[in-house]
Every structure is written in structure tokens, then in C-alpha cells.
Amino acid sequence: MYQSLDKLCKLEAEHGTPFWKIVQEDDCRERGITPEESFAGMQSMYEAMRYADEHYDETLLSASGLVGTEGKKMTDARAAGKLLCGDFIGKVMEKALKTSESNACMKRIVAAPTAGSCGVVPAVFLSLQEERQIPTEKMVEALYVAAGIGGVIGSRAFLAGAAGGCQAEIGSASAMAAGGVAYLMGGGAPEIANAAALALKNLLGLACDPVAGLVEVPCVKRNVMGAVNALTSADMTMAGIFSKIPPDQVIDAMKSIGRSMHEDIRETGKGGLAGTPAGIAVRERMAGLD
Fold this sequence. Notes:
Shape: globular
Number of domains: 1
Number of strands: 0
Radius of gyration: 18 Å
Structural class: mainly alpha
Largest sheet: none
Oligomer: single chain
CATH class: Mainly Alpha
């Protein structure tokens, strides 16, 4: 597993091997499999993302009753032309809600990189594929790009909210999606790394404060924010706007911030939104159901 985006950029420049292929080759070495086996496995994950979106149950609520049906509300609002953000961003928002609601309702999802951030990458990738008619093979390559970014973040910092707050979950997912989009829009390793850095920078310091300790509120709606942030970060990158702080140093800053966070805002369900009167009331209601 690579521990530096700069290293991946240098490998692409030195050998001419695309970013996604470098990640795939590393996967093959690590797991002792062929490129064909690796690609098939990655494609199966992409198809699972598609399945989660297409089989969203608009009537289903989570066991707590806090999450569910809102993906359908966004679908209806988009169909009615009510969204200021437009149809494409509306579609991204819709898919982020649907996938993350499905997670809360115990349906099948792909943790990319975590269950709490499972809606970001699928929402961005599936929407972009539909919008630009991108072949699935290219989308799988972009998923390798996303995986490579996530691998570096996981090796260099952390991906769990319990370790580093929601910046480590939604922030990392947003960085992964942004890098993948940069690749799909024709960017090379420098653009991929920069898009990831911009996305992560935008979410530094984000607390992990799940109400009643459930991956529902505010987690589901933060997937929407992470998905849209990924697209704006990729757009800035492809417009030639680059981070003044190198990507690896952005990841290091995220790690430092995560270590500085009080435990109350690191997935304990004690502080932040979880500690508000409304959040406490939900926790007490859920405790009474045990």
C-alpha cells in the first residue's frame, strides 16, 4: 500500500503508467492475484454500488425511524425542477441520500471507505457516468484511482471517525471521489492528487457526532455535502486551480487535527449534535427501546 500521493505522481511521470494501473499492480502484488482477477473484483464493487442505488426502497425507514424516504423526496423535487442546483447536482444529491439511507436500513452497500461515508463515491461516479455516458470499464479504472487515494489516506492518517472525526470518513470519501472525477475528466496524477487535496482541505476539522451513536444523523446528509464537494474540487482542479499545500501535507494536517479532537466529537455520540437537547432526547428514546 502506497503511503504518499507524491510517490504515485512520480511513478506515473517516470514510467508512464497511469495512476489507476499503478494502484492495480500494487493490489495484484499484495493479494497475489492477476490483473484480470483484480479488475473483476473492482468491477463487482462498482456494480454493487449501482445495485444499491437502483434497489433503493423509498418506503423503508431505519429501525430508529430517523432515516429513510428522503432519497425519494429529492427524486421528486428534481423531477419537478425545483432544485436551484440543477438536474445533475440534484441527481448526485439524490444518489448520495439513497445509498447512505440504504446503509442505515441495513441493505447492501460498499464501504467506500466506510459505511458512514458509503454514499459519496457512488453518488458522484454513477451520476457522472449517466451524464457523460462513460463506459463502465473507465468507471472501474476511476474506482482504482479512488481506492489508491483512500489507501494513502488510510496508511498516512486514518479513515475511521472514531480515530479522526468525520473529516476522516466523509472527508476521505470526498477526496477519493474528487480524484476519480479528475481522472475521468482527463487529468493525470498531479490533477488527481490535487483534486483529492482540495476536497479534503474543505472538510478539515469535521466532527463525528452521531446522534444516539447511530450512523444516521447527521451522517446521511453529510454524504450529500461530501459528494458535491468532490465535484467542485475536481472542477477547480481541471480549471487549473491548485492547492498551495501539497496533497500529502494536507493528509498529514488531517491526522494532526484528528489527534487534537476531543473524544466527544470522535464517534462517541456524546458531543456536537449528539449532545444537543434534541440529540439527547433521541438517545434517551432509543435507550428506552432496549
